[in-house]
Amino acid sequence: MNWDKFIVDGLKHGDPLIIGAVVSIVLVSIAIVAGLTYFKKWGYLWREWLTTVDHKKIGVMYIISALVMLFRGGADGLMLRMQLTAPEMKFLTAQHYNEIFSAHGIIMILFMAMPFIIGIMNVVIPLQIGARDVAFPRLNAVSFWLFFFGAMLYNIAFVVGGAPDAGWTSYFPLASTEFSPGVGNNYYAIALQIAGLGTLMTGVNFIVTILKMRAPGMTLMRMPMFTWSTLITCIIIVFAFPVLTVALALMMFDRLFGSQFFTMTNGGMDMLWANLFWVWGHPEVYIVILPAFGIYSEIISTFSRKNLYGYKSMVASMAIISLLSFLVWVHHFYTMGQGAAVNSFFSITTMLIAVPTGVKIFNWLFTLRKGKIVFTTPMLYSLAFIPIFTLGGVTGVMLAMASADYQYHNTMFLVAHFHYVLIPGTVFAVIAGMYYWFPLIAGFKLNERQGKAAFWTIAISFNVTFLPLFFLGLDGMTRRQYTYSAETGFGPLNLIATIGSVGLMIGFALIVYNIIWSFRHAPRETKGDVWDGAGRTLEWATHIPVPVYNFAVVPEVDRLDAFYFAKKEKRSLFKDKIEKIHMPSNNGQPFILGAIFFFWGFFMVFSMWKSAIVAGIGVLILLAMRTFERDHGFYIPVDEVKKTEQSYGGDSV
Amino acid sequence: MKIDNSLPLEYRNEENRFRIIGFWIFLGAEIVLFATLFLTYFTLWTRTGSGLTAADVFVLEPVLAETFILLTSSFTCGLAIHAMRQGLIKPTMWFMGITLLLGAAFLGIEIYEFYTYVHEGLTLQTSAFASSLFVLLGTHGAHVTFGLLWGIAIMIQLKREGLNETTANKSFIFSLYWHFLDVVWIFIFSFVYLKGLM
């Protein structure tokens, strides 16, 4: 067997960064294995995590993976900024720069933002609707492991074979075998496919969960806003992800089997890729932003001590956004020659999105109006989000104008725009959500003083990093250019941006310190409603940390924010008495299925057909095992529920 | 588990009701998947390069046979579910078996069709038209193949356990899948073959 194809070029050429990456990956892997063996934690890991079907634990695993990916993608971003600090830098080669900006985009969108959002959904949604788990707990585990192993497959590309280098959009003909002959873009086609299948299943799972498992009395218009945003997001997932599935499959056929979809000869059409990619890609943007809107709605309402202003218009605007999100994809390539009429249509639909989004911004402002605002860490992120995101949104409207876009297209102005919407939009939201809902899982709050220090570092550094990019873009600096000459005059603003990016790194490191410190020193909470009794939704109605069955008795809801009004009127949402509770049993098959998919993907990437077929048969065998299995879960007896409830200090309600 | 005895067997417990609605939503995703493949085909079908065109390779007779066979299998699949609703295990098994045999016959003709195309010089690599044709038909064919394996697995379970909440639920969901494949084929027959022959 020829092992040469597995070795990346950087290693052959002795690139110190690649060697460093390889060595650190090997060392960390050895350390993890050695640590687990030394502390005898393999059994614990398998029983409590790898085989779990509990939505809370799956959510935690999503969030941990997302945090790891945040640092991986963040390190990429930092390297890009290092390379651009001054004219003619020699930090990265052009090829390495291409690989890193591709990785930065793919990882941050698909392996950081998405799983972070889905992780928070997993933890919060069943609790918010008063359910004991999601509709399909086992499928939920499958979703996670497909995402996880897809992400792992993508991440080994850097050290085994070669990384994708055609940008996160992988436009053809650049991404074809003719212009990207290595295995890098095979990784793109296959790793994203595996992770995408997991996401699609999550979409189906949460739609059924939200439609069918709400607590008695919780009509659709009594659902918390985060639940609404998740429902709408999942509908987008179900309708957008199959397009990605097809696009990636066609890419795979072109690259591995010589088909002619996106080629330059024999009738192939490279623009078809751009269209398919963005028919998925634009809704994808809303998949990561709408749940963020939901998170902000919850936090702003809680810490303004008021109900959310304009509940119905919030729901309607999200529905309209989700619809419009499928009608704007061409604005990503105005300059590629579809003509004035088509560009005008997509220009108008794009600008229309500003209307429902504006409605939401004003609703948050009116929620704040005359509220008793409490400046907690999650609230600070939410308050910072409004003006920064608006700046991102307004520059988005500028970009939406097709004729003007000929000036900005693929410049740093665009880069600044999407960082201005995605970071305050999604990243601030998931961090705010993590701080807000952290006690549900951990039983304590993250230290507020450290949290606020991290917030200010991040919020200021963010603007220092990305504000200069608007001006660089208007001056004509294009995106994805790996170096520039001193005569361009891009130097000073780039230097400022790089300084900002170092600040961002410090800010995120502070969050990690905050988490570790709080695990050791933060005072443990004794009652469920931890934010000074200001909780409005059902996740605060149970104990903290939330017991495995979530609610000893299923709550009954009679209005929006029922928990808040029940507290005010001193009545209980829990009317039934404790009964035995049905639970799904743990199972290792989802993990194994994910692992087999990983190997299948790896063999496909390297065109090792026989091994790939064997792995494919392995997948079928696991599916067969599932259909022949008869596992009806188990019951937690009443005594045990009562005992658990007492351990939280007395009566359940 | 909430059990409602007024409902048909496959809907009776809550988990199984979730499975049915979940599968409907999954079929929604499948519609988008096939819609994307159809749009790809419609975009590329005249782009034959220097290779053969649709009119060169399409022949009506085998495709018409495929259509009748698959439509019939959808009918027998419906009969299987009808028998299941009446609690009759034997006809359920028979009609399921006939459904799968018809599915296998369909697949046989499709493979023969592919063989003919390749023999005449139209392969996946020939042109954008050929690629989109093979991937659209192949995706449908792969779904039918998976359906055959799935159907066999369900028949084994019906044989072992008879009709109960679990097997009835599985059979019902399988029938949704099978009818869906039939609908997709009607679109392939009309808008790929008939349009290509015109």
Automatic annotation (TrEMBL), chain A:
Its main location: membrane. It is found in: Cell membrane. Residues 40-558 form the Cytochrome oxidase subunit I profile domain. Keywords: Cell membrane, Copper, Electron transport, Heme, Hydrogen ion transport, Ion transport, Iron, Membrane, Metal-binding, Oxidoreductase, Respiratory chain, Transmembrane, Transmembrane helix, Transport. Pathway: Energy metabolism; oxidative phosphorylation. The chain crosses the membrane at residues 17-39, 60-80, 100-127, 139-163, 187-211, 231-253, 273-296, 308-332, 344-366, 378-401, 421-441, 453-474, 494-517, 612-628. It holds the Pfam family COX1. It is a multi-pass membrane protein. Its cofactor is Cu cation; ferriheme a. It catalyses: 2 a quinol + O2 = 2 a quinone + 2 H2O. Binds a copper B center. Its EC number is 1.10.3.-. Catalyzes quinol oxidation with the concomitant reduction of oxygen to water. Belongs to the heme-copper respiratory oxidase family. This is Quinol oxidase subunit 1. It comes from Paenibacillus arenosi.
Automatic annotation (TrEMBL), chain B:
The keyword Calcium does not apply. Pfam families: COX3. Catalyzes quinol oxidation with the concomitant reduction of oxygen to water. The keyword Transmembrane helix applies. It is an enzyme of class 1 (oxidoreductase). This is Quinol oxidase subunit 3. It is a multi-pass membrane protein. Belongs to the cytochrome c oxidase subunit 3 family. Keywords: Cell membrane, Membrane, Oxidoreductase, Transmembrane, Transmembrane helix.
